[in-house]
Amino acid sequence: MTNFDYDLITIGAGSGGVRASRLAASYGGKVATVEESRVGGTCVMRGCVPKKLLVYGAHYASHFEDAVGFGWTVGDVSHDWGALVAAKDKELNRLEQVYHRMFKDVGVFLLEGRGVLSDPHTVEVGGKSYTADKILIGVGGWPFIPNIPGREYVITSNEALDLKERPDHIIIVGGGYIALEFAGIFRALGSKVDVLIRSGSILRGFDHDVCCTVTQELDKKGIVIHPDCVVRSIDKCDDGQLSVMVDNGKEMVVDQVMYATGRNPNTKGIGLEEAGVVLNKKGAIVVDKWNRSNVENIFAVGDVTDRVNLTPVAINEGRVFAESFFNNSPMTLDYTNIASAVFTQPTVGTVGMTEEQALKDHAVKIYMSRFKAMKHTLSGRDERIMMKIIVDKDTDKVLGCHMVGDDSPEIIQGLAVALKCGATKAQFDATVGIHPTAAEEFVTMRDAVPDSADV
Fold first, then answer.
1. Which candidate in 59, 63, 402, 435 is catalytic?
2. Total structural domains in the chain?
3. In this model, does residue 454 exceed pLDDT 50?
């Protein structure tokens, strides 16, 4: 028995918070979750899920074009943006109800409103105070928009998912995965798309061959990437369009400007500093391997910690937290070899080290293949697949696998298991491929890239 209202209060009903709350309650804890918006959080309500649904919708543009090469006669086709958004919203409503039922089934109390810490054990919600032995922060991140003249006219990925009309011409500022995924969506559905990036290349932090391949494929689709380009100001024109001035003095007039220039931890105004919780320079909660902050009873999981900002990571952080503190089964999360995907068109799948990372501590061999998918021998589409394996020269251990091409996330997921088990290139070579598939190329690459063995 304790003097607290709850054993655990979780602030934020996103992926990590939901998993932690449900498990803690299933292990006998009295749990409440605080949410000021929609249960499901960023991923389900304004991120991965709705974005992927729009990506699926965008794919049909290429499907219709490719069908001709296989003997189909395709008549006039058109796309209804409003119908796609409505269908997406219907699915999100269904998913939110699923989350509510999951809470109800395990006895998690939902406190609707903004949760603010008033001390290390007390959360204020809607004018009422609730106490807990442990408090878990899972409030995620929020899109960052730089402070430039006209920032009030721009949208972020949040608003892009709910636009009433598809813009005929859109500028997307940023070269990360969110920017490029939305660039693909809008372009496939008929918009003219310009991508403005501050640096010289897209997808910072990804393997350089991935970046180069994606750049080439986006260019083929008519997405124009402007490197070394900084927006100075945005003004609204009399006709409702937006005038964008960039640092070279050029003016671009478009229907919409979307910023995808990163996300910051959503920690402002929830009482963390007042409760004594240490934040880093970016505003993220500093935690140890047990997801514990410097305040003994306050924990954090997910993007609010700014460690590895991926939904499955947040889910697993929530799981290990609940196991450790509500099931007497202490465990921590291994952050090595976490696979990830970018749902550009074509998609990216990656796991392990990039070539640049590997070269810091290893002598490496590089195996790489570029080829046209069998499908496109008939469709006629000018699209190439890129696959890359990075191998430690001394141990033969596979350090990283990277792919650009259709189904790459599905393929890389299996390879992530292999890397987690410490697979070697010899074991890749000994694996019999599935024919005819693109995936078999990962187990049939025999010759290292010339000179890579001596890098």
1. 435
2. 3
3. no
